[in-house]
Amino acid sequence: MIDEWINQLKEQQILYLLSILAGAMIVDFFSGIIAAKIKQEITSKIGINGILRKIASMMLLVFFLPVAFLLPGFTGIVMLYVLYVGYLWLELQSILENYKKMGIDTTPFRHFLELLKDFMSKK
């Protein structure tokens, strides 16, 4: 039964999206550390809170993998896509905020995200 779930997830490429999301979380965490170090705002409390938030988020995202199969049809898979893409969007926004704190011009990236947002809303 679990093998069937994993095969369906691979077919729907949800696991790939989850992998990209995990990578974005790692980039966000380290860019946040660098930005805090540059701004002289780094503390162990902030670092620990960041780690715990990322772990809790990933646990929640993984929790919804088997839950998606309890919903009829492809409803659960569609909901997972929406959840994962939405969360990825938030991670990208956070990475851009960290880059801005580091003094990096994020205008081209923000323009790209706006174009992507417009494209997705038209579909």
UniProtKB/TrEMBL annotation:
It comes from the Bacteria. The keyword Membrane applies. It is found in: Membrane. The chain crosses the membrane at residues 14-36, 57-90. Keywords: Membrane, Transmembrane, Transmembrane helix. The keyword Disulfide bond does not apply. It is a multi-pass membrane protein. Belongs to the bacteriophage holin family. Cp-1 holin subfamily. This is Holin. It comes from Candidatus Enterococcus lowellii. The lineage of its organism: Bacteria, Bacillati, Bacillota, Bacilli, Lactobacillales.
